[in-house]
Amino acid sequence: MYLTQKCQIRDLSKQEFLALRELCRLSKNLYNVGLYSVRQFYFSEQRYLRYESNYHQCKDNENYKLLNTDIAQQTLKVVARSFRSVFNLIKAAKQGLYRFEQIRLPKYLPKEGYFPLIMPRIKVKNGGFEVPMSNAFRKEFGSIRLPFPERLNGKILKEVRILPKYNARFFEIEYVVEAEPEPQDINPDHAIAIDLGLDNLATCVSTVGASFLLDGKPLKAVNQWFNKENARLQSIKDLQKIKGTTKRQARLTLNRNNFVRDYLNKSARYIIDWCIKHQIGTVIIGVNPGIKQEINIGAKNNQNFVQIPYWSLRQKLKNLCERYGLKYQEQEESYTSKASFLDGDHIPVYNPDPSQKYQFSGKRVKRGLYCSQQGHLINADCNGAANIGKKSSHNGFAGVGRGCLTQPLRVKIS
Length: 414
Description:
Elements: E1 2-8, H1 14-45, H2 51-58, H3 62-66, H4 69-94, E2 117-119, E3 128-130, H5 135-141, E4 145-147, E5 156-165, E6 170-178, E7 187-196, E8 200-206, E9 211-215, H6 217-239, H7 247-277, E10 280-287, H8 291-294, H9 299-307, H10 310-324, E11 327-332, E12 363-366, E13 369-371, E14 377-379, H11 380-391, H12 402-406, E15 409-411
Parallel strand pairs: 7-10, 9-15, 10-11
Antiparallel strand pairs: 1-6, 2-5, 3-4, 5-6, 7-8, 8-9, 12-13, 13-14
Helix pairs in contact: 1-2, 1-4, 6-7, 7-10
Pfam families: Cas12f1-like_TNB, OrfB_IS605
Protein name: Transposase
Keywords: DNA recombination, DNA-binding, Transposition
């Protein structure tokens, strides 16, 4: 498996900064050159142009020659992966797992844009390394030396990526290292079901008789603050007839994204550590395909919900499960919030046919509170999470009691 460390590149001289921007510009140019070849082949032959064939068409291009060979080849491989995903989506759409109208061909990058530098190998010496480049480029722009993190010394380095951020105003660097899995002492018969939400970022119900909520209000507040401040800056920019992203907007977006990424990292870590502590071997998370595209819960709620990267949280949980030997499972969650877990309601799969209607034993009496047929009041999100576990066909959720769903522990991430 692979682990990634991300750092911001600091203390660049003006010459190094300009050289790094030019390398990213050349990488963008080569991406567009490679994409043009693949697109034209697709339009004429209705087939996929493999990387090997595309390489022979692009290797004489001036952008390819100015870049280091490794970096240029990795850029063309990204083109190949991007276009291959189109055919995978078409295959998924034929199986009913995706929608044909959502499939788009990869587009060209902006003329004044930039693209990452992907380096499959570097030479670390005296605590740093030089960015690979062609001799012709080095003669014109000079070399670029970057520090190497001490904590990665001795690790098996698989790839280094330099990412231009916000129109190459600054750069981030990602180190991808190979690591061995760290299996834990867990019981695969024990499981936890997770219902993702807004005020409650993740509602977790387990088969060991415990439940908790991860507070999502800080994430919601930061998103609201970001939208309000960005709208104010946008109005000033419109009055001054400024086009593009300003430095203040870029700085604002960076702060927001850093907070969101940190919050989701800590949330995923808390869930996995909790599972390891209680020897839970299966993580079940509820998902609804296309929920963000079709959501209709009001303008403000739509904005808050859509801007929270739930897919990123799911990927972090999946990666941590792979690292520690837990089983990760995604479960379709239609009607899990409406059905009554305590009354054992059957939970159907969503059918867009308007004539198909379902009746459930309980109902949500007010925000955050669900009432069963017997009059028992439980947390509405816990009811949904328990139904996700039940719908996954995991046998352990049959023994979850009313006490587990009534008073979940609220966890605030700091």
